[in-house]
Design goal:
Blueprint (H helix, E strand, L loop, with lengths): L8 E2 L1 H7 L5 E5 L2 E4 L6 E4 L1 H6 L7 E2 L20 H10 L7 E5 L5 H12 L5 E4 L2 H7 L31 E2 L1 H9 L5 E4 L17 E3 L16 H8 L8 E4 L5 H11 L5 E4 L2 H5 L9
Parallel strand pairs: 1-7, 2-5, 2-6, 6-7, 8-12, 9-10, 9-11, 11-12
Antiparallel strand pairs: 3-4
Helix pairs in contact: 4-8
Length: about 290
């Protein structure tokens, strides 16, 4: 029987207690970056997963390629249902699995994969609070080397089906309607503006910046306590709808995760984020 989740987050102790449980699938969703702003590049971290270690039994989930749309001209565009199903099945995930996701950074990549799973109606998924950083720093076991998945197991080959996609994503038109007031929403920038670089258009007008340093505790790498999160989101929390965004839609998912922890159920992530917004700056942004 798969472990039961009671929160979008699980602690390192919870994961340690449940490692090896039937139908528990642990995913390392790490992505590595270089550069800043418009010069940022992204790299799948599968080599680091194998060479530098991972949670024992964890499988590497390639967010850059397998869990993104291959025909998009923007990085990390969310996949369609068929591609999502294929990527999940290849990792041995079924509709009765419990999935825990982590990364080796501040949680933006694990939060994005968590958001993708939820957007396709899969709720038995949680983010490891503190990620691999906290796991490793606590001296918990780490495995080095590749892990063979169950992709060839005939019992799991066709055992995962995506649900109907939920309205958890915002597109450019939705953001423009928020800006011009025809469909109000609080706009939240999750990226620290210092990492956006120079030489680009302005951020979305009317934005409230709530950067990850206010959401993630720098010492523990975990989400801050609910009272601190509530204080950070106080300027926008009473909005009927909140749209989070960042550079490419990754850090935005950490803010979305924190808002979910706080109980706000009308949150969308702007897929494409500033990488999309800056391609065609509208008149209302000038």
């Amino acid at each position: 029987m798969a472990p039961v989740l009671t929160s979008p987050l699980v602690s390192t102790q919870w994961l340690a207690d449940h490692l090896g449980a039937d139908e528990l699938v642990v995913l390392d969703a790490s992505v590595h970056t270089s550069g800043v702003g418009l010069g940022t590049t992204w790299h799948a971290a599968g080599d680091a997963y194998e060479q530098h270690g991972h949670v024992p039994g964890a499988r590497y989930a390639d967010l850059l390629h397998d869990f993104s749309a291959p025909d998009s001209d923007l990085p990390f565009t969310r996949p369609g249902a068929e591609r999502f199903e294929q990527a999940a099945r290849a990792l041995g995930i079924t509709n009765t699995s419990t999935v825990v996701v982590y990364d080796d950074s501040v949680g933006e990549w694990s939060a994005r994969l968590w958001w993708i799973f939820r957007s396709f109606g899969f709720d038995d998924v949680a983010v490891l609070d503190g990620g691999f950083v906290k796991w490793r720093d606590e001296g918990r076991p780490v495995r080095v080397g590749a892990l063979t998945t169950r992709a060839d197991d005939p019992d799991t080959q066709h055992a995962f089906l995506a649900g109907e996609e939920r309205p958890l994503w915002a597109d450019r038109d939705r953001v423009e309607r928020a800006v011009d007031g025809t469909q109000p929403a609080a706009l939240v920038l999750a990226a620290d503006e210092t990492v956006l670089g120079d030489g680009h258009a302005p951020v979305v007008p009317g934005t409230t910046p709530i950067a990850l340093r206010r959401i993630v505790d720098q010492d523990s790498n975990t989400l801050r306590r609910p009272a601190a999160l509530a204080d950070a989101f106080a300027p926008v929390f009473d909005a009927d709808e909140i749209v989070t965004y960042c550079g490419v839609g990754s850090a935005a998912c950490v803010d979305a995760l924190a808002l979910t922890v706080l109980g706000h159920d009308r949150v969308q992530v702007y897929d494409g984020s500033l990488a999309d917004w800056w391609r065609r700056e509208p008149e209302l942004a000038s």
